[in-house]
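Milestone 3.1: sequence recovery, worked example.
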């Protein structure tokens, strides 16, 4: 059991280090929450001012989920930071992050697809 735990810890540390490298790279590339909001809004034909509105099963819903997901996972922002910008609670952001993660998996997309 101890050997298995050690491998788990090593993998968790390696994953965390890779995650930090990605977040640092995104920051060096000039990615900010505003930049993600701008690019996602354009890609999904959504007015950024509408991001504070309720959204269900439409482009606005997709945009909100991607912004929340990539904001936390790619930029390393806290849910509080994103919530303040988008006028949502941390609890709501958490739900949007999950939706964004699920959407990325189902559609096989990532933040780099916005750069292309």
């Amino acid at each position: 059991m101890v050997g298995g735990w050690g491998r788990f810890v090593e993998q968790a540390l390696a994953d965390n280090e890779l995650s930090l490298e990605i977040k640092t790279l995104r920051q060096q590339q000039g990615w900010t929450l505003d930049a993600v909001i701008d690019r996602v809004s354009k890609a999904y034909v959504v007015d950024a001012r509408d991001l504070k509105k309720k959204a269900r099963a439409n482009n606005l819903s997709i945009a909100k989920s991607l912004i929340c997901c990539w904001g936390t996972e790619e930029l390393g922002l806290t849910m509080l930071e994103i919530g303040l910008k988008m006028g949502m609670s941390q609890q709501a952001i958490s739900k949007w992050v999950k939706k964004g993660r699920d959407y990325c998996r189902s559609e096989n997309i990532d933040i780099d697809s916005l750069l292309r």
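Residues 69 and 97 are 4 Å apart (CA to CA). Helices lie at 2-28, 33-43, 59-73, 79-86, 90-107.
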